[in-house]
Design a protein that fits this description.
The protein is an alpha+beta fold. It has 3 helices and 9 strands. The chain is about 15% helix and about 35% strand.
Length: about 120
């Protein structure tokens, strides 16, 4: 199971990669494997400022629809434009081309509440 050490994780299986005062967010390899083939991503919160743990969208797989939760507070500034025509990128490359949103970080101290790669590995067994 690929769990990159340079990312932070949530118990809900989202990852976050910080770049300055912004961050990229997606779901983990574990999450996409549990969901199966992803067919649609719905994120209608672009331009909104949400709190840590708020739902920022949904992800639809062949068998289920799941909510997506924001790992830290921030303003959602971009949706990955490739996901509209190719949501399967999340299955193929969850930590790279399959990122979901970019946010402007509201409170970097919230990163301290997230899991390290090792802690996340323990969570998923």
């Amino acid at each position: 199971m690929n769990v990159p050490a340079n990312l932070k994780y949530t118990e809900d299986h989202e990852w976050i990669r910080v770049e300055g005062n912004e961050a990229f967010i997606g779901i983990t390899e574990y999450a996409q494997q549990q969901l199966g083939d992803i067919v649609f991503v719905e994120i209608e919160t672009i331009g909104e400022t949400l709190a840590m743990g708020d739902t920022f969208g949904t992800i639809e797989a062949v068998k289920t629809v799941s909510d997506l939760f924001l790992p830290i507070s921030g303003e959602i500034v971009e949706l990955n434009p490739k996901l509209e025509s190719a949501p399967e990128l999340i299955n193929k490359d969850p930590y790279g081309e399959g990122w979901m949103i970019r946010i402007k970080i509201a409170d970097a101290n919230e990163l301290n509440n997230l899991l390290s790669a090792d802690a996340y590995k323990e969570t998923i067994g």
